[in-house]
Design a protein that fits this description.
One of its GO terms (cellular component) is plasma membrane. Keywords: Membrane, Transmembrane, Transmembrane helix. It comes from Phasianus colchicus (Common pheasant). The protein has about 575 residues and is an all-alpha fold. It has one domain. About 70% of the residues lie in helices and about 0% in strands. It has a two-stranded parallel ribbon with strand order 1-2. Helix 8 packs parallel to helix 11 and helix 13 packs parallel to helix 15. It is globular and about 100 Å long. The N and C termini lie far apart (about 80 Å).
Length: about 575
């Protein structure tokens, strides 16, 4: 009996040890899963920075940085396409610099081609490089790989637009599915009070961020509750809202007129020769557009204070007004470019005639009579060349992007940093409280920054066909903007007085981005389909229309039956019903 009892005790201890061992392994596995989830979160770019901002400034400010990170990912894909399939093949396999007139700085410009002012204006050596359309040769194949450069250039330009449409619509569909349903307002304060804290937090800094996040969520809930119970004088409110919209329309009309006036001046300067004017005259259009984009949103913000909307609705009105401002400015700029393109096309006819005379005089002056020797070789820098309107368009978009970037950074340094330094150090010796009075610390301008991102992306979509370097410039801009604006928000800004919860879906931002994507593709498609390319620059020189590279490829590289099938499939009678069916679905 003692032996049996001892055996039972041993078995019991063995089972307990097994259970302890299983519990220990289970805890280790759970710890590994938790650490792996933390590792995945840490691998998401800027995730911890955005979480910290959200804990102090609320979900509305954090939604901007989430949107910026998403835009950064899109531009990385666009940069990979243009850099890997256009710029690198031309640089490695195309003809080198100096081999053709389109790849050579003209003799009259060589003295200033490397000056900083010239390069900053994206002229000189920058203009005659892979950064712009005009540098690329129209050979069907280049290098030992027989790489089809014109076809690749065209397909990448069209593919970036198609990919952008696909990813924006897909993101909108995913956001709509994740929006979900149900009522999350019942016993809102009770849920926040008793379920907000995470008792597994062990890091003091994380605990501080969690405390700030809970405090911010209570402020958001209080604002929501106040707005639902607010009583207002309906007649006074309507009058103030009508007045605010009238003032906003006057601002938009004044901005449009100013852009129109400046564009007219720029055309006058171009006709008289820009070399006769200074830096401001050469960059007046870009600088005025950047300054309007900097000051008008602030004016709209002051106007919106009359309307007394809920903060979320006020943000949408603000976004709509800034959207109208930027859209009017952008299309005024495009119309001006169209006028300049027409001038370049008229100039091209004269240049063609002069080049014919120059070639004939060169041939007659260098070849003796009855001689069969070939004409002497002329240095490409001395060959006259026609106006390359595609490069001109690309340069304008690059300058506008760079000037807008510089204006944004200067605004952050002066409007946020220096203002915060002044308030912080002069508050002790000033006549009034600078922190709670004028000028106080600045708040983060959500609407202006969101619209700045959207319209900057519209310029990238519109101009990247003529300046393949634009996606790379935008990647650099977004990368530096993330760090600079995160630093500015945490160091120089204060939370908004009326903190509100952002809507659970970012589809409002996406809808505006989709709209500006559609509007950005219209001018690019018009130039591709309707305007003949320049005759002596770019991968489509020698063709009447840029899209002819597709038919040329079908004719030379595919069987004849495939070309017929493609011609039938591209018939408008089939395409239009297909588009209508897709819209209906």
């Amino acid at each position: 009996a003692e032996e049996i009892g001892t055996l039972h005790k041993g078995s019991g201890r063995h089972i307990q040890n097994k259970k302890k061992e299983m519990t220990f392994h289970k805890l280790k596995w759970m710890k590994f899963q938790r650490d792996f989830e933390n590792f995945k979160t840490a691998c998401i770019p800027w995730e911890m920075k955005i979480k910290e901002i959200e804990s102090h400034f609320g979900s509305s400010v954090a939604s901007y940085f989430i949107f910026l990170r998403w835009m950064y990912g899109i531009n990385m894909i666009l940069f990979g396409l243009t850099f890997g399939l256009v710029m690198i093949p031309e640089a490695l396999m195309g003809k080198p610099y100096g081999s053709l007139p389109r790849k050579t700085v003209p003799r009259a410009e060589e003295a200033t081609a490397m000056n900083f002012a010239t390069l900053w204006d994206f002229s000189g050596f920058a203009q005659y490089s892979v950064l712009f359309y005009g540098y690329y040769n129209n050979q069907r194949t280049i290098g030992w790989l027989k790489f089809r450069m014109p076809l690749s250039y065209f397909l990448v330009g069209v593919g970036t637009i198609g990919y952008s449409f696909m990813i924006v619509i897909r993101t909108m569909a995913r956001n709509a599915n994740e929006d979900g349903g149900g009522d999350d307002t019942s016993f809102n304060f009770s849920w926040k009070m008793f379920t907000s804290w995470d008792y597994l937090i062990g890091n003091p800094e994380t605990a501080d961020n969690k405390f700030a996040s809970i405090t911010t969520s209570f402020k958001e809930a209080i604002v929501e509750e106040q707005e639902s119970r607010k009583e207002e004088n309906i007649h006074l409110t309507r009058f103030l809202r009508v007045l605010a919209n009238f003032l906003a329309l006057c601002t938009l009309a004044g901005s449009g007129y100013l852009i129109f006036f400046v564009v007219r001046r720029s055309q006058k300067f171009a006709l008289e020769g820009l070399e006769n004017y200074g830096w401001w005259e050469r960059n007046e259009v870009n600088m005025v557009m950047s300054l309007l984009g900097m000051f008008c949103p602030t004016l709209f913000d002051v106007i919106s204070s009359l309307e007394n909307y809920h903060p979320r609705i006020a943000l949408r009105w603000q976004l709509g007004r800034i959207f109208a401002l930027f859209l009017g400015n952008l299309y005024t700029f495009i119309i001006a470019l169209m006028d300049e393109i027409n001038l370049k096309l008229e100039e091209e006819k004269i240049v063609k005639y002069n080049m014919t005379i120059w070639e004939a005089s060169l041939y007659n002056g260098t070849i003796p009579e009855n001689s069969t020797a070939p004409p002497i070789q002329v240095d490409p820098a001395d060959v006259p060349r026609g106006p390359c309107w595609e490069t001109m368009v690309g340069q304008e978009f690059v300058r506008l992007t760079v000037s807008d970037t510089m204006t944004t950074y200067i605004t952050i340094l002066i409007g946020d940093f220096l203002r915060a330094v002044f308030v912080r150090f002069f508050n002790y010796c000033w006549c009034w409280d600078l922190e709670y009075g004028f000028p106080s610390y600045s708040e983060f301008d959500i609407s202006g920054n969101v619209l700045g991102l959207i319209f900057n992306q519209g310029m990238i979509w519109m101009g990247s066909f003529y300046a393949p370097c634009l996606p790379a410039i935008n990647v650099f801009r977004l990368h530096t903007s993330m760090y600079l604006q995160c630093w500015a928000v945490m160091c120089c800004n204060v939370p908004q007085e009326r903190v509100f919860k952002a809507s659970r879906s970012n589809n409002f931002y996406m809808a505006m981005l989709l709209f500006i994507l559609f509007l950005s593709t219209l001018p690019a498609v018009y130039t591709i389909v309707s305007i003949p390319p320049s005759f002596d620059c770019g991968p489509f020189s020698g063709k009447t229309r840029m899209f002819e590279v597709i038919s040329e490829t079908l004719e030379h590289d595919f069987p004849s039956w495939f070309g017929k099938v493609f011609g039938y499939a591209s018939n408008p009678g089939l395409i239009l019903p297909f588009i209508l069916l897709m819209v209906y679905v």
